[in-house]
Amino acid sequence: MHTDAVDRLLSTTSPETDEVLDEMEAQADREGFPTIGHEVGAALRLCARLTDADSVFELGSGFGYSAYWMAPAVGPDGEIVLTEVDEDELDQARAYFERGGYADRAVFEHGDALDVVAEYDGPFDLVLVDHQNERYVEGFEAVREKVAPGGVVVADNVLHSSGDPGFEPEDLERALEDGPPEDDESSLASIIDYYRRVHDDPDFETTTVPVGEGLFVSVRV
Ligand SMILES: C[S@@+](CC[C@H](N)C(=O)[O-])C[C@H]1O[C@@H](n2cnc3c(N)ncnc32)[C@H](O)[C@@H]1O
Q1: Is the separation of the CB atoms in 216 and 194 below 8 Å?
Q2: How far apart are alpha carbons 171 and 141 in whole angstroms?
Q3: Ligand 1 in reach of 62 Cβ (< 6 A)
Q4: Contact of 167 with 187, CB cutoff 8 Å
């Protein structure tokens, strides 16, 4: 979504990575695993720092890449709850967190994120919505009451989808005006439903942040 120079700058001017994060990036490249990517990782760390986050909840953690970006901002007394349906991915996340020295602030929950969140009271300072696009609205509904005032809900993959079929920002712009095309099989309709849900919620203020595949950042006001 940016010029090549902006892409490079977003990468080179973001916080330093450690060797564990570099290894996670190499794994994602090797396996074609859809992590949030470096730019979004840095933006999430920024959100965690700005909200002074003690409590983070993640819907869809994979092997822990996005959570690992936030871990230094949460601090040893904080908590990040990782949720993942794939047990093998979650085991890898645990191993990466142990190697990086962040396991003390992480809880690894195997299962459907929507079931897991029901077991937590919150308040959460930051929630990452990155599981299944079709269930983003459900994810927001499940966490909204548990988000602290001033806390944020960040949803990934909202401006572009490299799925098959995917969509581009132009498709979203058109669909927000006219509704998604009838034959559309991409996640466009789910993203529009999510946008309308968060936008229409008087307790949240939503801003689009064009990094990676695009974020909606909804602050509980
Ligand atoms: C796009 S990946 C992102 C992973 C991670 N946030 C990252 O950036 O590396 C989405 C992950 O969510 C997991 N997932 C999908 N539906 C889920 C659900 N209902 N509950 C928990 N995890 C889910 C998938 O198995 C996959 O690993």
Answers
A1: yes
A2: 26
A3: yes
A4: yes
pLDDT at residue number 186: 83
**Among 61, 107, 109, 211, which residue has the most ligand 1 atoms within 8 Å of its CB, making it the best to mutate?**
61
Spans of the chain below 70 pLDDT: none
Q: Which one of 130, 136, 137 would you pick to mutate in the ligand 1 pocket, going by the greatest count of ligand atoms within 8 A of its CB?
A: 130
Q: Residue 1 has what pLDDT? A: 83
Residue 158: what residue type? V
Q: How far apart are CA 182 and CA 100, in angstroms?
A: 47
Q: Is the peptide bond before 165 cis (omega within 30 degrees of 0)?
A: yes
- Given the CA of residue 113, which atom of ligand 1 is nearest to it? 20
What's the CATH number where 198 sits?
Answer: 3.40.50.150
Structure tokens at 130: 């990155």
Cβ of 132 closer than 6 Å to ligand 1, yes or no, is yes
Task: Identify the H or E element spanning 151.
Answer: strand 147-156
For residue 119, the SS3 value is coil
Quote the domain boundaries for residue 77: 4-220
CA torsion through residues 172, 186, 84, 212, sign:
negative
- Residue tagged 């909804």 (tokens): 218
Q: Is 113 in the pocket of ligand 1 (CB under 6 A)?
A: yes
Atom of ligand 1 nearest to the CA of 63: 9
Q: How many domains does the chain have?
A: 1
